[in-house]
Design goal:
Number of strands: 18
Number of helices: 9
Radius of gyration: 31 Å
Distance between the termini: 63 Å
Structural class: alpha/beta
Shape: elongated
Helix content: 10-25%
Length: about 425
């Protein structure tokens, strides 16, 4: 089964908790705090494996979670960092954050890696908080939570040449006779339900990867037929080969087919109109094809190459393969990633995100939220009074108390943070 679009959830490992411990060894008076830091949580990393050509591995497992770091130990020993969770993906994988739409990674080369979710750092042990004023602190940090993300993963096949055209014009037959690909071939529309890849070698030992991209009909860019599902695979091809049924076996005009398919490519992505295009006039073994070819050549621009062939009788195949190979020789192999920015990067000042926000629930409780304050809360060990007092001081330093008073909070009002509730004391 060919899978080229999936949605998954990933969570990097949380950091290990710091430890509260003291040195109690013979002949070492006033040993002091000796709690070690927790280890870092594992990252979630996507790594390109050129042996894969589908996202099938993500179809049945949709949740991936890296291991958390080891907790800190006594005698100031650091907890062990967790190994990253490495997930293999095929070349051409595009990773987006589903919630924000941000492109996180565009992976095109073998063994290329991208950190998709960063593991949390380990919490600091009590030995890290010792000061002359407080030489024996009785608290430590919990580990930082690992990043969690909902991802949308797309595969855009990396092929040198993309075959486009209406259903039943002979694309699958063409790829089956010029390469070792074995697509299903039948005399009805949408026989091909997934892209087929084939490696083609010319008689002068030049080779290229050819992709048969099914499902293009009028309205494909809007999702009609299978076009919306597979048009994305055209984006990475360097040459577009347009296969046309020159014999009009289904009653369509060859020139109308040519115009319609090019219009769909343009509506999907205007950049595709700048790609070199070669036209294959297929089914030339049928008598009507010769007359149609003459009319067709009169209507199209003179600089566009048209190669009459018959995929069934294999006439004209070598000429078109040489032409494709010549075209590819003129185009650089390493093209920019599809999502790479084309504009010059200009620095713009951006305000840092507010550490917290305040809203009110219908029952009158004040709700605190924000990435910074929520992270601080999760890294506080509320089982220790000194840690709770430290959290209170940190909130005051952030300006939470003043902001609550400004919003009208009074003694005894309920303050909510995540799923916990506190009482406001002025």
């Amino acid at each position: 089964m060919f899978v080229d679009q999936v949605k998954v959830f990933v969570k990097a490992g949380d950091g290990g908790n710091g430890l509260v411990a003291y040195r109690r060894e013979k002949y070492i008076p006033l040993g002091g705090p000796a709690g070690g830091d927790g280890g870092s949580g594992g990252d979630v990393i996507f790594k390109v494996d050129e042996g894969l050509n589908t996202l099938m591995d993500f179809r049945y497992q949709r949740h991936f979670k890296a291991k958390r770091g080891e907790n800190g130990m006594s005698k100031g020993q650091h907890g062990k960092n967790s190994e990253p969770l490495i997930l293999p993906v095929p070349p051409g994988t595009l990773v987006r954050d589903e919630d924000t739409g941000e492109v996180i990674a565009d992976l095109t080369k073998h063994e290329q890696e991208a950190v998709i979710a960063k593991g949390g750092r380990g919490g600091r042990g009590n030995s890290r908080f010792a000061t002359p004023r407080n030489p024996a602190p009785d608290f430590a940090e919990n580990g930082e939570p690992g990043v969690e993300r909902n991802l949308q993963i797309e595969l855009k096949l990396i092929a040198d040449v993309g075959l486009v055209g209406f259903p039943s014009v002979g694309k699958s037959t063409f790829i089956s006779v010029v390469s070792a690909a074995k697509p299903k071939i039948a005399d009805y529309h949408f026989t091909t339900l997934a892209p087929n890849l084939g490696v083609v070698e010319t008689q002068d030992q030049r080779s290229f990867v050819l992709a048969d991209l099914p499902g293009l009909i009028e309205g494909a860019h809007e999702g009609i037929g299978l076009g919306h599902q597979f048009l994305r695979h055209v984006e990475r091809t360097r040459v577009i080969v347009h296969v046309i049924d020159m014999a009009s076996t289904e009653g369509r005009d060859p020139y109308d087919d040519y115009v319609t398919i090019n219009e769909e490519l343009k509506k999907y992505n205007e950049d595709l109109t700048t790609r070199p295009q070669i036209i294959i006039a297929n089914k030339m073994d049928i008598p009507e094809a010769e007359e149609n070819l003459v009319v067709f050549k009169e209507k199209i621009p003179a600089d566009i190459d048209v190669f009459p062939i018959s995929a069934i009788t294999r006439d004209g195949l070598q000429d078109v393969l040489y032409a494709i190979a010549d075209k590819l020789d003129q185009i650089p192999k390493n093209e920019k990633p599809v999502e790479e920015q084309k504009e010059r990067v200009v620095y713009r000042f951006e305000e840092s995100e507010k550490p917290f926000e305040i809203t009110r629930d219908p029952d009158g409780a004040y709700v605190l939220y924000g990435e910074q304050i929520e992270k601080l809360f999760k890294m506080t060990d509320f089982n220790r009074d000194e840690a709770a007092r430290r959290f209170s001081r940190q909130m005051r330093a952030m300006g939470v108390d003043a902001a609550l008073r400004k919003r009208g909070a009074k003694n005894g009002d309920v303050i909510r943070l995540l799923e916990y509730e506190f009482e406001f004391i002025d």
